[in-house]
Amino acid sequence: MFYRHLQGPIEALLFASGQPLPAERIASMLNIHIDHVHTLIADMVNSMMAEERGLTIVEVAGGYQLCTKPAFSNIVSKLAAVQESKLSAAALETLAIVAFKQPVTRQEIESIRGVNVDRVVTTLLERMLIKEIGRKEAIGRPILYGTTIEFLQCFGLKSLEDLPDISRLLPDIHPEE
């Protein structure tokens, strides 16, 4: 392939970014067509799988990200020695409501959950899993919340379209209501 010499620069960009890098941005930085970026990355992924390499490239949150292969997670976790920070059941429930109903107000979340969600929403905002995305055109102009790129990364989703169909999971729930 003519552009094979650009695999190194792509790998360097993904490493330096640390965040998902959209193919469009890679193409513009390297002055190549976006289709070549997709082809090069597909070749790189195949190469990384065939060899005993510790890294791979994943498509997540609207871009590509260089990641450790799952097989090496135990070794990497020893290096990081990071204490796992899990979300409470209340936080997961609230996050699910935001993910499936966004844009959604705090009051709408509370009406679904039946409890005050001030503390949980604050936690989700601090962890950058949700963000303020605007104001609702209603009395008091309440804040509207939606999910973030970090949410997509955390759950390994390319986009919100990768969320499961809630109507199949819970037939009595109608997300459009």
Automatic annotation (TrEMBL):
The keyword Cell division applies. It comes from the Bacteria. One of its GO terms (biological process) is cell division. The keyword NAD does not apply. Coiled coil: none annotated. Keywords: Cell cycle, Cell division, Chromosome partition, Cytoplasm. NCBIfam families: SMC-Scp complex subunit ScpB (TIGR00281). This is Segregation and condensation protein B.
